[in-house]
Amino acid sequence: MAQRVGPTRRGVDGTPVEPLSIKHPNAAGIDIGGASHYVAVPPDRVGKGEPAVREFGPHTEDLVAVANWLCACRIDTVALESTGVYWIALYELLQARGFEVWLVDAKSVRHVKARKSDVLDCQWLQQLHSFGLLSQAHRPDEQVCALREMSRLRDITIDERARHTQRMQKALTQMNVQLTNVITDITGETGMNIIRAIVAGGATAWPSRS
């Protein structure tokens, strides 16, 4: 059952305003960074005098330590921002450890008002997530992610191949070797035979038949 927090407030017309209810009492928030990650848990999940916010490094053993600390704090759901690609390793590790991971768009977090200036990003994420005020970004399943990454890599490779071909054509033109006027594709078998012969210092692309 959701927990209600705070006294009853009233609007400008005197109508009672329903206080926010905690929907995820076991929620944590993580501020993702390239050099370190800041993790916030509810204050009642740590011992007296212990901080509810901890800083962890970006390495694998640090990510494992994050998961272990969250387990020790009885956390079952985590919110983290989709910052660059730094979130991917931690996201996948937490999912593998059984946590419900909410990937959050940074824009949706900034749109929520009433933030106090002395609250860290990870604490703000934790508070918003506990009250159910965050929108979860779509994250495809593992197979779709792998296929999408392969498709992206293929497109990059094709683009790189085209750029390298253009550089080869430019270098040949600067040497006044007008291959493009003779053959349609310098990366084909004939074109590559000629280029290899030029690189090897030969006068012809084919060995003598005499």
Automatic annotation (TrEMBL):
One of its GO terms (molecular function) is DNA binding. It comes from the Bacteria. InterPro entries: Transp_IS110-like_N, Transpos_IS110. One of its GO terms (biological process) is DNA transposition. Pfam families: DEDD_Tnp_IS110. Residues 28-175 form the Transposase IS110-like N-terminal domain. This is Transposase (N-terminal).
